[in-house]
Design brief:
about 400 residues; Purple Acid Phosphatase, chain A, domain 2; 6-stranded mixed beta sheet; 9 helices
Amino acid sequence: MAPWVTTLIDLAIAGAVVYAQWRLGRAFFEWVTLRRRMWLRWLPVPLASLMVIAFLLNYFPPVSQLPGLWFRSWMVLRILTALWAFGSTAVYLGWLAFERFSRQVAQFDPARRRLLHAAGSAAAAAPFAMLGYGSLIGRTDFRVRELDVPIPKLPPDLQGVRLLQLSDIHLSPFLSEAELARVVDAANHVRAQAALVTGDLITTKGDPLDACLRQLSRLRVDSEILGCLGNHEIYANAEEYATQRGARLGIGFLRQRNRELRFGHARLNIAGVDYQRISMRSRYLEGAEKLAVPGAVNVLLSHSPDVFPVAAAKGFDLTVSGHTHGGQVTIEILHQTLNVARFLTPYVYGLYGSDTGAAAYVSRGLGTVGLPARIGAPPEIVVLRLVKA
């Protein structure tokens, strides 16, 4: 899809959200006036203010340095306001269409109108039912996903090599060590040649980083466990500790470094970079071209998938990323996925290709941030199988 089409869709969605919130606000004010409960008329003001604050804080970097409880509170606020914005808009627009339809039906069959009203009420409750499902079931519905990744000029000795990817673990009160242990046990059955961990081991300071590293060290692969760090390691001020402790446990976090793995006569060069901030887009992957090895198949581990075009231009055949959680809470409308992540990057989930033949895979990851729920984006254990394009 052309970028301008995606931009138009995003603008249409944003316009629908603003329109729905305005109409809901007017309807609430009319309801308050009708029932003479004027003291309630100011209630939407703090709610609207919270939505605006949550939106603006996304562009205020010091928020990421807040202590654990305050940071979690901000994340919960951000997710809840996004859910309200999209959920209430969907319910309002659906109800508007339903009302117009049921008004026509009422002229002929009042009983059917009552039935339609009951169905409409059930539809209005659907988002809350989905949220309950996402918290209790979807959050830990771990799935193994295997897929072929076509690489041009792939050497015969790398044909069929399997790379295990675990991303966005976020070991925290919302993902226990026992649940991560279950993931590692499942991953050990896929018989991978190497394991790739693409950042966000924890969410904030005080989360059990040692427990996360201990579980990851149990991964069983033919060669090495390698990884890169994510934005939440920065927030937790844990980059150095994760790197050093990981090395002692046999996990190599590649921070502007690379590691060559040999398979027969072929070389698989795996490089890693620290989190690339979107605000520094003009400086993505500075110096990373030095990590690519001529004659080898070059794989880049970058927590942020937004670097993919730059990585392809710098000679990397495959970029392996996470960060987006696949949207975490995502709804498909007219073959378009609606989630917060798509407003930040076009690379939200799945396998992508470039004109040069380079590929990128963006994982949904395992954990959650903010809202402890997954809807339409189940957590995944990924196996990338290299094949010749």
